[in-house]
Design goal:
With about 180 residues, the protein is an alpha+beta fold. The chain has a domain of about 110 residues: 3-layer Sandwich (Rieske Iron-sulfur Protein), CATH 2.102.10.10. The protein has 3 helices and 13 strands; from the N terminus they run H-E-E-E-E-E-E-E-E-E-E-H-E-E-E-H.
């Protein structure tokens, strides 16, 4: 009986002894990249919408809304409307704003800030009270012969994805996050 009691005591005490564990990559140890801002193609020049309309594109892995004012000025904004992230590119474009087609929020084409009331129409009346008003990012844009280029941080997507945990149970099956 004494041996059994001693074995139980040793086993219980061993639970409190620090153990060396295998090291796996986590969001805390993921390599980050320095910001690298540059112009990258977003849409082709042929895809540029008519004045008063907008379209969507991708630049540096980011969803971008390309809006053209009624007088032909081109603006680039993030293509996700707060608070529920529907595409801004379906919105109505005026000379100074673009309007969220679902919740009715107007965003400044120059700054991305909310202009007027946040979520003023439809279901936005309910949702708007649940969230703090927030704008959308804006980006410098230029028109080239063959494309519409947007100035973005080309390392933004890599830095965002570096926050995903990668290790033994990686969704892709490999510890380094690569596909087979």
């Amino acid at each position: 009986m004494k041996v059994l009691s001693l074995a139980t005591l040793v086993t219980a005490a061993s639970a409190f002894v620090p153990q060396k564990q295998a090291s796996f990559g986590t969001a805390l140890s993921a390599k980050k990249f320095a910001p690298k801002v540059q112009y990258v193609p977003c849409i082709s020049a042929e895809e540029l919408p008519d004045p008063g309309f907008a379209t969507s594109g991708v630049a540096g892995g980011l969803a971008i809304c390309i809006a053209v004012t009624p007088t032909g000025k081109i603006f680039a904004l993030g293509d996700k409307c707060p608070p529920v992230n529907q595409p801004l590119s379906f919105g109505r474009v005026t000379e100074d704003t673009i309007e969220d087609p679902v919740l009715g929020t107007k965003f400044s084409l120059k700054t991305g800030d909310v202009v007027g009331k946040f979520c003023p129409s439809g279901i936005g009346l309910l949702l708007g009270g649940l969230f703090e008003p927030s704008g959308v990012p804006t980006y410098a844009v230029k028109k080239n012969k063959n494309s519409i280029d947007v100035q973005v941080d080309v390392n933004y997507k890599a830095n965002f994805e570096a926050n995903y945990w990668s290790g033994v149970l990686d969704a892709q099956g490999k510890a380094d996050g690569k596909y087979y």
